[in-house]
Amino acid sequence: MWLRVNENCLFFALGLAVASTFFLFQSSNNSLNCSAILKADALAKQPSTQKVDTVDGADSEIAKLLTGPPKGGDDKDEGDDGIEFMDEEAHTMFKHTHENPVSTALKKAVRVFCWILTSPKNIKSKAIHVNATWAPRCDKHVFVSTSFPNSSHTGLPIIEFDIPDGRDSLWAKTKAAHQYIYDNELDNYDWFLKADDDTYAIMENLRFMLLAHNSSDPIYFGCRNRPFVKQGWMSGGPGYVLSREAVKVLVEDGLSNPEYCKYKDDGPEDVQIGLCLEKVNVTAGDSRDSKGRWRFMPLQPQSHMRPGNRTLDQWFYDYLYYPYTDGKECCSDYSISWHYVNHEWMHTLDNMFYHIKPVGMIDDGFWPQKALTDKSMDALIEKLKVFAVNMSQPTV
């Protein structure tokens, strides 16, 4: 009990320190003008355990195991009632003015389109915070939502579908989103990331992992789970990323064939797309690093990084495809994403990753000592590619 109390105090102190640093820094630079403080937490929603009809007859087993996030999870339907929000300027991504040549090189080599599942009730409480933090680091990003009035007033890039809102419609939105990508964006990007509106992703690390792979191969990556699909399926929460060829095969050979992809719209979207992709011979890739550490994390950072965490629900262990260790060895040095990240943690993580740096921190040796030319940019990309390949071959 003493340890848990002090742990909570430590997290509170850390959060307070980061928040203080953030607001002092922003105030001194006149970058953000916060007119209100985010407050109020909504009640956590209980995921449906309704029986689902899958193409492999795994309906009842899926319903038993899909019991929602572990204790302490932040899977919430945070509506707009009773919440004050920062002004519009505060939801614009803050950028440092200095150049990041490594990030620039990765962006040149790996083009990523991101689509983020959201809903009308989550626009202010979740989507705007994704839009103000990691999403603009995609080459292009859109929010996929049920149609709602005045959506153009949100200031967000929203693709609307005439599909009912709710968890039972996630598979319908997923099918519609991939059809939209196929019709409008397929040739413009190499990889296509699906995320939730409570996902936090580090796009530089995603591009780094993908640099070791070819988007012309039918493959996809994410947090790989074991039940229901022989080759495994990728958890929707931390996101999954499909190659251009995987999207092409999914739409052309899968979505039009009810024997491969479920025609009905209900059921868990991540399991359903996993079943569908397996049927059309899209490979479930291994996203772990060379030490076997995970890169797509299905829970909050604090759930994974706390050593000796024994509070996780049984479903987490039932889903494991690969061995798991909590604490420092839970996650790759180049981790990509986490799930159940609320608006407060969204901004905290973004500030810590991109704006706070310990003095004397050793880098990876990739940072050029002078401005990049086209030739030196290509050389840096090749150097990064070799490192990415070496980091993408688990040896444990």
Automatic annotation (TrEMBL):
Q: Which cofactor does it need?
A: Mn(2+)
Annotated Gene Ontology cellular component terms: membrane
Which Pfam family is one of this chain's hits?
Answer: Fringe
Q: Does the keyword Disulfide bond apply?
A: yes
- InterPro entries on file: C1GALT1/C1GALT1_chp1, Fringe-like_glycosylTrfase
Q: What is its EC number?
A: 2.4.1.122
Stated membrane topology is: Single-pass type II membrane protein
User: Where does the protein end up?
Assistant: Membrane
Q: Name one GO molecular function term.
A: nucleotide binding
The alphabetical list of record keywords is: Disulfide bond, Glycoprotein, Glycosyltransferase, Manganese, Membrane, Metal-binding, Nucleotide-binding, Signal-anchor, Transferase, Transmembrane, Transmembrane helix
Q: Any idea where the Fringe-like glycosyltransferase domain is?
A: 112-282
Top-rank EC class of the record's enzyme: transferase
The reply to whether rRNA-binding figures as a keyword in the UniProt entry is no
Q: What is its main location?
A: membrane
Entry superkingdom = Eukaryota
Q: In which pathway does it act?
A: Protein modification; protein glycosylation
Biological role? Glycosyltransferase that generates the core 1 O-glycan Gal-beta1-3GalNAc-alpha1-Ser/Thr (T antigen), which is a precursor for many extended O-glycans in glycoproteins.
Quaternary structure annotation from Swiss-Prot or TrEMBL: Homodimer; disulfide-linked.
Give the family, as the similarity comment puts it: Belongs to the glycosyltransferase 31 family. Beta3-Gal-T subfamily.
The protein's name in its UniProt record = Glycoprotein-N-acetylgalactosamine 3-beta-galactosyltransferase 1
* Gene source species: Panagrellus redivivus (Microworm)
